Structure formats: structure tokens, C-alpha cells
């Protein structure tokens, strides 16, 4: 599918995206990395510094924390409510992650840039989740419509 088709298919209003980013507090990041050169690390850092309660999810048993935040092996291991599941995994894994996001009661399924699956989106939407595909919350935070959460301590 050409990129232009993807852009049209996953075209969200500014109100929709900013509404999600204003309403969520706890974000589980599937595919979080401790490698500072990885994009997922930078996104986790910015979201955490902006005030979101981040939960890194990575199955590697040797990885116990990222930026001082404890790492869990799977979404099902999380011991508190999750507002948003942010996905940094190949799009082929998104459907199974959507199933897990539904199972844990998440409110939003967000696929990172390059992560999209129409079946996963439909499944999540039918379960009542808001869905964003092929977008980066870090980028969306800095778009002109976004009002920074300056009241939060870093």
C-alpha cells in the first residue's frame, strides 16, 4: 500500500489526538528499549518527563528497568489500570497485542509510526477502545494544537 493511502486511512483530527493525550495518564509501552539509540527509548523518555506514568513492556528477562522504571514482561503482568497501550513492535504482532490490550481493560490502542493493522483496529474499536495507528505520541505532543502540561513536575 502506498504511503499516501496510509496517510488518508489513518487521518485523525487534532481534537481526537489531543483528547487522547490529555485524558490518558498510564501508558504501557510494548517494545520499550533501554538502548538510548532506539526511538522507543526517546519516546518513553519524553512521555515520562511530560508526566505520564510509563510502564515499559519487554519480554527480555535480563531487562529489569528502563530509566529507573520497572519493566514488565507482558501486558498481563501489569498490576494497575492502563489507559493506553503504545506499540513499538512489528505490525504483524499488533492483532495479538490488541487482544491483550482489550483483556487488561485499556482505553486506547496506539500503533507507533509504521505500526498499523486494520483488523487490530477493528477488533479494538469494537471492544470500545480508541485507536490510533501509524502515529507517534511524542510528535503529537509538540504539534501546535497541543498545550504542554506545564503544571507537572519533571
TrEMBL record:
Gene3D superfamilies: NAD(P)-binding Rossmann-like Domain (3.40.50.720). It holds the Pfam family CoA_binding_2. Residues 21-115 form the CoA-binding domain. Signal peptide: none annotated. InterPro entries: CoA-bd, NAD(P)-bd_dom_sf. This is CoA-binding domain-containing protein.
Amino acid at each position: 500500500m502506498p504511503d499516501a493511502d496510509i496517510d488518508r486511512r489513518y487521518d485523525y483530527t487534532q481534537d481526537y489526538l489531543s483528547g487522547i493525550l490529555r485524558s490518558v495518564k498510564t501508558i504501557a509501552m510494548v517494545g520499550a528499549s533501554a538502548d538510548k539509540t532506539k526511538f522507543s527509548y526517546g519516546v518513553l523518555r519524553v512521555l515520562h518527563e511530560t508526566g505520564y506514568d510509563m510502564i515499559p513492556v519487554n519480554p527480555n528477562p535480563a531487562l529489569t528497568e528502563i530509566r529507573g522504571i520497572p519493566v514488565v514482561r507482558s501486558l498481563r503482568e501489569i498490576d494497575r489500570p492502563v489507559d493506553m497501550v503504545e506499540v513499538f513492535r512489528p505490525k504483524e504482532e499488533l492483532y495479538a497485542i490488541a487482544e491483550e490490550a482489550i483483556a487488561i481493560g485499556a482505553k486506547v490502542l496506539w500503533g507507533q509510526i509504521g505500526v498499523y493493522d486494520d483488523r487490530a483496529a477493528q477488533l479494538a474499536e469494537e471492544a470500545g477502545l480508541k485507536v490510533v495507528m501509524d502515529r507517534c505520541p511524542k510528535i503529537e505532543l509538540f504539534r501546535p494544537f497541543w498545550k504542554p502540561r506545564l503544571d507537572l513536575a519533571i
